[in-house]
Amino acid sequence: MALVDSIGGLSLEEEIRASSVVGEGEIEEGEITGDESDHSTSPNTIIPHQPHVLEHSWTFWFDSPAAKQKQSTWGSSIRPVHTFGTVEEFWSLYNNIHKPSKLAVGADFHCFKHKIEPKWEDPICANGGKWTISFPRGKSDTSWLYTLLAMIGEQFDNGDEICGAVINVRIKQEKISIWTKNATNETAQVSIGKQWKEFLDYNESIGFIFHDDARKTESVQANTQVDDGVTR
Question: What structural domains and CATH numbers belong to the chain?
């Protein structure tokens, strides 16, 4: 699976990784600059490594299965994990957290723009919707990474419409969704969906649903009880 979108001949993943690694001809952290004939810079001058700042800061959120069982209202168990604003911070976090295939069944892991909560009730999300792609259990790791890279690397033409993404881990499948701000902006929603499929090299159909419709479906399911009182 490869990203078709590229910058200067590099794939999205290569471009972002390259920006976080000191390349040939660049000053490495701790490197002494200048030579004996260069009197403009002290031979002991150390040039610090400058972080590669992202256009937006992003926050990882986690909703564990154990916490969900204890929650009194929907969404109350979601907790922020960490906020990052540079390429280096992203890779430091990503390389030290579980991939979707290693998360417990029932877990939800989110990456949203800073100060946007991954909840229908958030004012920025309230009038939006989401694109969703389903994968067999244990098969979404690469697509999850490429989705994150496309978002934080501002690869979507309508990136301002994007709130964030979530991976839902279930018994037989894993679902990745991209949440958007304004579901009635059909042109932007279609553009995001098409580009996402291109980034993931995904050829199957994908679905979009308004958050309002998802809320109604969730409400019906929550109020459907079997005789023993257990929600279906």
Answer: 53-66+75-222 (3.30.760.10)
Question: Model confidence over 180-193: pLDDT tens digits?
Answer: 999 999 999 999 99
Instruction: Report pLDDT digits (tens) over 195-225.
Output: 999 999 999 999 999 998 887 776 444 333 3
How far is Cα 40 from Cα 116, in angstroms, rounded to an integer?
A: 47
Asked if 49 and 22 count as a contact pair (C-beta separation under 8 A), the reply is: yes
Q: Cβ contacts of residue 180 below 8 Å, gap of 6+?
A: 128, 129, 130, 131, 161, 162, 163, 188, 189, 192
End-to-end CA separation in angstroms for the chain:
37
21 compared with 52, residue with greater pLDDT: 52
Give, for 185, the enclosing helix (H) or strand (E): none
How far apart CA 90 and CA 74 sit, in angstroms, is: 28
Tokens coding 230:
């257990």
Rg, Å, the chain Cα set: 21
Contact 127, 181 (CB under 8 A): yes
Average pLDDT of every residue of the chain:
79
pLDDT, tens digit, 9 for 90 and up, residues 47-56: 668 899 999 9
Dihedral over Cα of 13, 15, 19, 22: its sign: positive
